[in-house]
Amino acid sequence: MTAIDSAVLANGLKGISKGAEIWSLLRAQAEEMMRASALLKADLLALVLNQPTFDSALAALLAQAVKSSAPDSVDLFAEFKAVLARNPDIAEYAAIDLEKLDAVNPACPDLLTGFLSFRGFQALQVYRITHALWGEDKHQLAAMIQNWSAIKYGIDIHPAARVGKAVFIDHGMGLVVGSTAVLEDDVNIWHGVTLGSTLTEAGDRHPKIRKGATICAGATILGNIEVGAGAIVAASSVVLKSVGAGKVVAGVPAREIGVAPERLEAIDADFKSTSTQAQKR
After folding, report:
1. DSSP type of residue 157
2. Which domain holds residue 276?
3. In this structure, are residues 103 and 36 in contact, taking their beta carbons and an 8 Å threshold?
4. Rama region for 162: left / alpha / beta (φ>0; ψ in -120 to 50; rest)
C-alpha cells in the first residue's frame, strides 16, 4: 500500500462499504499514476476519474473490454450500469475480489493495475452481471454477453453457476465453469481448469468447490462432486470423486497425497508484503 493509500484510509474510510473504500483508493492511485506519466491519461480519465461512482467505473471498464466482441449497436455500458443499479451486491463483491487480488497476487502492483488490466478479475465481474441477468430470466442476453466475454478473456463461466466473493482467478485463460457448478468464498483457481460434467448425469451435474479451496492449473474436475473447504487439487489432476476438506489430491485419476498447509506463501498477503518490501530495498 502506498503512502497515498494509507492517507485515504486514515481519513475515515473504515466502516463504510467495501465498494466505497476501494473506489477512493482507485481514484487516488489513478491521480498518482497520471501525475507520473501521461501515457494512460485518456483511459484513467474515462474509466476512473471522470466516473462518478465505483459502479459506473466498473460498467465502463467492462463495456469497453467486451465491446469488440459485441455488435456495434449494443450499448453495453448502459446495460451494465442498469444491472449494477438493480444489484448493488455486484459492485460490493467486485471490490472484495479486487482487494483480494491486490493483497495476495505478487504479480499485481496495486488495485488500479488489477482493476484496469487483470483478466481474471474482469471476467469474473462480467460473469456477475450475466448471473444477475440469468436470475431475471433474461437467458438469451446473459448467454450472449457470456460468450462475448469468453471471446475477449478466454474465460467461460456459465451465467447460472454460483460464485461467492473474494474469489481469485489467476491468469484464467482456458477456465471453464459449468452451469450447475458452485465456487464458494475465498476459492483460488488457475488457468486451464475445467469444472465440467461426466456427460452421464443430467440436472445438477457440475462440481461444488467449497470455501477456501485451491484448484491448480490444468486440473479437470468432473461431475456433481465436492472439493472440500481448504482442499488443494494439484496441477493437471483429473478429479472424479469428492475431495475431503483440507486434503491434497493429485494425479490421473486424482488420489489423496497429503494434508493442505494452513498457508500457501505464493498467494499469501503477508508473503506478498514481505516480498514487495524486499524488492524496494
Report:
1. E
2. 163-281
3. no
4. beta
Which residues 6+ apart lie within 8 Å of 188 measured at CB? 167, 168, 170, 213, 214, 215, 264, 267
Please list, in sequence order, all residues whose beta carbon lies within 8 angstroms of the beta carbon of residue 172, skipping any fewer than 6 positions away.
119, 120, 123, 153, 154, 155, 189, 190, 191
The answer to whether 241 touches 255, Cβ cutoff 8 Å, is no
- What's the average model confidence in pLDDT over 48-75? 97
Do you find a cis peptide bond into 253, omega within 30 degrees of 0? yes
**Rounded average pLDDT over 157-178:** 98
Same structural domain, 214 and 99: no
- For the cut 80, the answer to whether the pLDDT of residue 280 exceeds it is no
**Where do we find the cell 449497436?**
73
- Answer with the one of 122, 141, 160 that is the final residue of a domain: 160
* Residue 3 confidence class, pLDDT cut points 50, 70, 90: very low
* pTM across the whole model: 0.91
CB 191 within 8 A of CB 171: yes
Lowest mean pLDDT among 9-13, 173-177, 187-191, 237-241: 9-13
What is the SS3 assignment for 9? helix
Same domain, 79 and 155: yes
